[in-house]
Amino acid sequence: MKPIVAIVGRPNVGKSTLFNRITRSRDAIVDDLPGVTRDRIFGDARWNDKLFTLVDTGGFAEGDDDPFAPHIRRQVTQAIADADAVVLVLDGKGGVSPFDADLIHTLRTVDKPAHFVVNKIDGEGQEKNMAEFYGLGIETLFPVSAEHGYGISDFMDALTATFPGDEESDAHPDAIRIAVVGKPNAGKSSLINAILGEQRLVVSEMAGTTRDAIDSVFIRENRHYVLVDTAGIRRKGKVSMRLEKFSIIKALRSLERCDVALIVIDAEQGISDQDVRVAGYAQDRGCGAIFLLNKWDLVDNRDGKALRRMTDDLRMAAKFLSFAPVLTVSALTGQRVPKIFSLVDAVYNQYDFRVTTGQLNKVMEKALERTPPPLHKGKRLKFYYATQVSSKPPTFVSFVSFPEAVHFSYQRYLVNQIRDAFGLDKIPLRMLLRQRT
Ligand code: GDP
Ligand code: GDP
């Protein structure tokens, strides 16, 4: 399980520059459908063999750059509470500000690793700017230049020192892992209770690999399921649940660990921007996804067209998840709650799909024959062969003479041919193009 690292600090200290430096050195993964333009506030990173997720809390502020605004303060505090490690970025050019002292104080009160970097130290000559920061009483300060890379590798070694290595530890390797995500009051905890309440068999809580990650494990028709990150939901009183704020990091954490995300939407209210944002996170994660239009008992469906209307709205707003099935449910009455499982199974079976290189290339050859690749500088682009490199989600690598010349629409055509040939209509598929000359 990947640790989540939150970057905090005042506006303009260089958080997003640092974020980009740490996350950018990855293979660009091209999804088969264009995402809507969203501010990226999280990204996956790897240092040596350590994988982790980085969250830039700068993106949490909506339109307001005043670090003392209460909502920014709250969001930063929440991010600190939810992350596994925190990086406070200080401005080596601008100097210390009261907000920094405030954040340092907050970090002292939470029991998790905190790292302090002084950014904009663009070389050894500028280390003199560090003096002022030592006055803050922090034991280890990392001078870095997010822009130029100075000091980054020492910092990254320290940050990732205690992170687990690449291999995944999992108590139930065959279980289907389900995350329940959605905006506040959509009905997530009601739904979790309805799902677990429906299980007359034993439900056990299992500690996840990281603190506060408690999962609920159950068996249904001989299949193991894990509802991830359900810590305390079954015990907690309704009042405190309602007070619990929407936490992006919590949603990310459970999406990170799931095979299938149940994206819960309050159908009485219709599709909101926040629903679309959550859907966007699921898409970025590449997990399977199912939209649950919850509170269906409250929806006025006298003309029998409510489902059609909402599905149209949803498809319009979240085109990028057009493959995700839609189901109307009521956590309150239990209506169609059992049906969630047949959908989860169907999505999971595709998500876990594997194909041999031989079968895959038969499909690719046919597709290349039916619609030949376009010309590039007068020569036909050449596709050599393709192979599946991983599942969950199925990910293919295709070797091409000039990957950068392959137009998005042609790539999408190929992906859709694979979808059709193997009946993969309910999940994301990824295709990476690699150079071969
Ligand atoms: P954020 O608001 O904390 O996310 O800050 P940004 O990453 O947007 O950076 C704010 C400004 O500081 C930009 O103009 C960056 O170019 C600049 N900056 C960021 N990192 C460095 C650095 O390492 N050295 C210098 N000299 N400038 C930097
Ligand atoms: P969460 O914040 O997403 O966990 O949402 P909750 O599960 O706490 O539900 C928020 C409110 O919606 C509570 O008052 C629930 O009783 C109510 N609620 C949840 N699901 C349904 C449903 O299917 N129908 C109706 N009528 N109310 C629901």
TrEMBL record:
Residues 3-167, 176-352 form the EngA-type G domain. It comes from the Bacteria. InterPro entries: G_ENGA, GTP-bd, GTPase_Der, KH_dom-like, KH_dom-like_a/b, P-loop_NTPase, Small_GTP-bd. Keywords: GTP-binding, Nucleotide-binding, Repeat, Ribosome biogenesis. One of its GO terms (molecular function) is ribosome binding. Belongs to the TRAFAC class TrmE-Era-EngA-EngB-Septin-like GTPase superfamily. EngA (Der) GTPase family. GTPase that plays an essential role in the late steps of ribosome biogenesis. This is GTPase Der.
